[in-house]
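User: Can you help me understand a structure? I only have the sequence.
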Amino acid sequence: MRGARLHMISTCLASGIVFLVLLAFCAFIYGVPSHPISIFLFKVGYRSSALVGRHAYLQLYSPWNRDVNAGYLPKEVDEFLCGRLRTTDNASEFAAIVDLYSAQAHGRQGDCVYRSSEEVRQKVISHLIGEFDDNPKYIAGSLILIRESQFGMGLGKGGFAPSELEPAKPKTDSEWLAWYQEKGIPIATAKYREWWNSGLTWDEKKSIDPLKGTVVQFHYCCG
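Assistant: Let's start by predicting it. Here is the structure, written out as tokens:
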């Protein structure tokens, strides 16, 4: 009886220690993402997340989704993930990373992804356009990331907005929301899908602005 009780106590203590370790792990990764220990733990968690799904792990990690560290992806994490984009042969891992960058868009995704090789950038664009209909939550971020990958340049915290051809520019918050939902996003997704499936070479595509002549344009903002 005494042995069984001691075994139960030791099991509880071990479970408690494991819980505290996991709590500390999460506190660093999710609470202070730019701390060196957090960077190390993020990589450990990333390699382990293959067992439970990297997409869920990265979406949960997203500083922007959690409003931590002003939403910015730490430079070391950015560089690590871009390295995985260059080297992975796993389609689901590639998609998980790109979807994180899509969620982080608007200047909080780092600059590594749109400075990647043209081959990687083409794969990024192909993935994002292919999931226009499946990922509506981050559609605006996807469009920004496509534009940045096309030209290899960032938009800072910019995005897309009415062009000079828009006769009735929105003024209130509700008008802006209606414009994005009824004009901005539908026009931009249709034009970029048409551009990507045009049959042109990559060199030809790079020099084309798919939104030219529409009421939608991209703009740079705020560093």
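Now, to help you interpret it: The beta strands are 159-162, 216-219. The mean pLDDT is 85. Let me know which part you'd like to focus on.
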